[in-house]
Design brief:
Aminopeptidase; Alpha-Beta Plaits
Length: 373
């Protein structure tokens, strides 16, 4: 059955224009939250702000099933054309605009909402810390299903196409501090060189092998040590990014990484680990995927459905299922001819695709009761 959903295109474009020009970084989305609150009040949509952080939860309808919709709201601090700025280069401005349209639709058509709808405007996705803060706030009940969305590069999905699931990888970043012993560069044997320790550790990380055909990676992404050319450095910092296709593989890989760290610590070399920025891999849900696939078909036709493809990117959206707050979940991969890619300031996409995205998400919510009751 073809979709008969209609949304206010002018509102979507106006929302995007404002949000695009007023991006804010993780947990600093103060004006973004104020704008969202203003728009929700104009709609007559009830919402609750989070305590001591940005963002909010909108509640519409009643009864079961308990349906969640999540939109991330933060932007990225980046340099573009020689100037530092804050950019919505990951498309969160589009996500918010789509979800605001969804809220407006169900405010205007309450009879089409079967169950309770919880709409989460979540801060700090880019630092993979926002979702867990929302969960720990205890303002969100257990969800039968949670839907999210993400604009997708043209190289993966084109406009008038969409994926019913984005197969995100499990990702984690560790920040490490190495402490050694300083000495004159002419007598290095009297010191403990943190650069030597880093080199040894990096070689151990590069030699890690997992028994799997699935993709995984371990990458040193930052390193700094030493302030003088004639002193053996006794202090250094570096970061490691590692990714796996599944959460089970992540458990195995991170244990091998911690074993490598322990093996390098000897004599005066000590390594401290900071940061637990784990972002779980997507947890496939056939029920949620089926709902989203059917919603895509109603809006874009069968030819608009693109099968999910493995992706080494991560998203803290998957914490909701990983931590057990959502029984089922899926994230729509919205094609919009986005180029050259995500996290690139100045990236562009076809704004009309936000209309398709809003209709797909609305159709998914409308048909959820059939699958989850």
């Amino acid at each position: 059955m073809e979709s008969i959903v209609t949304v206010n295109q002018t509102d979507i474009y106006n929302d995007w224009n404002y949000l695009h020009e007023h991006g804010e970084t993780a947990f600093k989305e103060v004006n973004t939250t104020k704008y969202l609150a203003k728009r929700l009040r104009e709609m007559g949509a009830p919402f609750e702000l989070f305590d001591n952080m940005t963002g909010m939860i909108v509640t519409l309808g009643s009864g079961s099933p308990m349906i969640g919709i999540r939109s991330d709201i933060d932007a990225l601090k980046q340099t573009y054309n020689g100037k530092m700025g804050i950019f919505h280069s990951c498309g969160h401005d589009a996500h918010m605009s789509v979800v605001l349209a969804l809220v407006q639709y169900f405010v205007n058509n309450p009879e089409e909402l079967k169950g309770t709808l919880k709409v989460i405007f979540q801060p700090a996705e880019e630092t993979v810390t926002g979702a867990e803060k929302v969960i720990k706030s205890e303002k969100l009940p257990h969800l039968d299903v949670l839907y999210g969305l993400h604009v997708t590069p043209e190289s993966e999905v084109k406009a008038k196409e969409a994926q019913p699931m984005l197969e995100a990888a499990a990702t984690r970043t560790l920040w490490l501090t190495i402490r050694g012993k300083a000495a004159h560069a002419g007598t290095p044997q009297l010191g403990a060189n943190v650069i030597d320790a880093f080199t040894e550790l990096n070689e151990k990380l590069r030699s890690i092998k997992l028994k799997t055909d699935l993709p995984y990676s371990v990458t040193t992404t930052m390193v700094h040590a030493g302030e003088s050319s004639n002193i053996v450095p006794d202090y250094g910092t570096f970061a490691i990014d590692f990714r796996t296709r599944t959460n089970e593989l992540m458990d195995i890989l991170q244990q091998k990484i911690f074993d490598a760290i322990d093996n390098v610590q000897k004599r005066e070399i000590k390594i401290a680990v900071d940061g637990n920025d784990l972002s779980p891999a997507s947890i496939p849900s056939e029920k949620a995927n089926s709902v989203m696939r059917n919603a895509i078909e109603r809006v874009l036709g069968k030819e608009g459905v693109v099968p999910p493809k493995p992706n080494q990117g991560g998203d803290d959206f998957h914490f909701y299922a990983y931590d057990g707050l959502a029984s089922e979940s899926t994230m729509l991969g919205l094609g919009c001819n986005l180029k050259p890619g995500l996290h690139i300031p100045g990236m562009t996409f076809e704004k009309s695709s936000m209309i398709d995205g809003a209709k797909i998400m609305i159709e998914a919510v409308k048909s959820t009761q059939q699958e989850f009751n």
